[in-house]
Structures are given as structure tokens and as C-alpha cells.
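Hi everyone, sorry if this is the wrong subforum. Our group has a chain we'd like a structural model of before ordering constructs, and none of us has done structure prediction before. Sequence below.
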Amino acid sequence: MSGYAKTAILLAGLTALFIVIGGALGGESGALVALLVAGGMNLFAWWTSDKVVLRMAGARPIGPADAPRLYALTEQLARRAGLPMPALYVIDEEQPNAFATGRDPANAAVAVNAGLLRHLSEEEVAGVIAHELAHIRNRDTLIMTVTATIAGAISMLAQFGFLFRGGDSRNNPFGPIGLILMLILAPLAAMLVQMAISRSREYEADRVGAEICGNPRWLASALVTLQNAARRIENHHAEANPALAHMFIVNPLSGARMDNLFSTHPSTENRVRALLELEARRGGDGGIAPRPAPPRRAGGSVPSSGWR
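Answer:
Right subforum, don't worry. Here is the predicted structure as C-alpha cells:
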């Protein structure tokens, strides 16, 4: 089953959950109000989230003069993906990692941790950038906004039902105890489906990213390097804002806290296995041809000699 089919099935399940809970707790009017409120909140978040997320991550914009090799590589991969060149940002974190954001391909941005250029080979960096471009091409920010809208509406419905119908046992099909259980279980079920959709989008971005860079093994190797580094190197911005964790290509949280108890990321081992199976089925086309390193720029914001 393709990643798109899995996502469609999970979204349909989340919608069905919303309809069932909405009818039971809030009726048609309550369900509609919850959906409109959650939709308005998430529409605002979708429109402005890229600026908010980049600011929370401590990202700063860079141009071709700051990181010529990274800029040229991203430009080349964007052409292969049929995308406009995204804005590039760097985060002053030693842990190698990256994420993409933006409401559509014309307003997209790719942010990389500075450690990505110091710990990964150029081929591995190409795999990571291709993965993030795949998120942009697949419009995963839109998919996750729709998912968040429905999940948020379910949570609102559960709270509305508890606040406004909890004391009315005559018209309440669940009773007071049933409503308490619904208040706890309905948002939990929505969150689990939301995380399953996020994991499905990661698998799909891996597959499309491998096609963009032309060599699944580059991305597979990068994922192993990133996961090993994430266990050793703390990502201070992500630890301070755990809500950002789901955006990165691998979970940036160290695990010292309970923030990653329910991970939005598939296991790295499963992702690598899927990429190697993809390589075995279709083979690589050799990937993009890495360009010769340009002269180093004195005082550049990102070291251009970081690729070993």
C-alpha cells in the first residue's frame, strides 16, 4: 500500500472518529462549531507557522555567499524535484538535523543545523535535503494542518461534552463516567492517529527523497549518522521547544525527558530497511554529481569545508 493510500485511510479514520464523537457529545451543531473553531485556529497557524517555527528554532537566513556548496546543492536538487528554490536557514546547533516548513512550494524554507555540514558527507547532505524537498513537494504541511484541525476539533468536542453535558444524565448516552473516559480517550485516540499520519508522511518523504537525489543509500546512510549523533549531541532549541521535534528528519530529543514517549518518527532501522529495499528494487541512477568545492569564503556563516 502506498504512503498516500495509508494517509488517506488514516485521515478517513480520524474524520469518522470526529463524526462519531461529534454526534454523541455535541450533536450536529456542536460538531460544526468545534470544526470551525479548530479550522480557524489551524488556518492561522498554517499561514504563519513557518515564521513562528523558524524563530523558535533560532534559525537565521543564509544565501549563496554564506554557504555556496549547500546553496548550489539545494538548487540542483530543487530543479530535479521540479520545485522553486526554497529559502535556506541555518540553526547554530552541533547536532546534525534539518527540517522543512512553509505553506506551499512557493513559500517554503529548509533549515539545517550547522552540525549537518560538519558531520555528514556531501552525498548524505544531498539525501537529507532531498528528503526535506520531498516534504515540500508532497505538501505535507497542508496534510498535517488538516490532520491537526480534525484532531483539535475532537479534543474540543470532548471538552465541550464534559463541560456542558456532564451534569445532564438524562440526555447523556454515556453518563458522567462515560464522559470522563471520553474526555481522556478521544483526544488520545486522535493524537495516536495524528502521529501515525506523521510517520506515514516520513516514509513517503524518504521514498520521494531517494528519487530526487537518485540514490536511496545516500539517505539511508544519512539517517544512521543522524540517529547516532542525536543520541550523543543535545539539540538545545528542540529540548527547549519539544513541539518542534516532529518537524526534524530524525527525532532531535535526547530522551532524557518523557517528551519522546510517543514518537512522531518511524524507527530509523525501519526507514533504512525500506530505503535499501527500494534500492534493491529499482537501483540508483548514480544520484546527482557533486560539484567541485568553490573557494572558501573568509568569515562565512557556515563552514564550506565541513563535508569530508
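For your construct planning: The chain has a mean pLDDT of 79. The CA atoms of residues 20 and 223 lie 39 Å apart.
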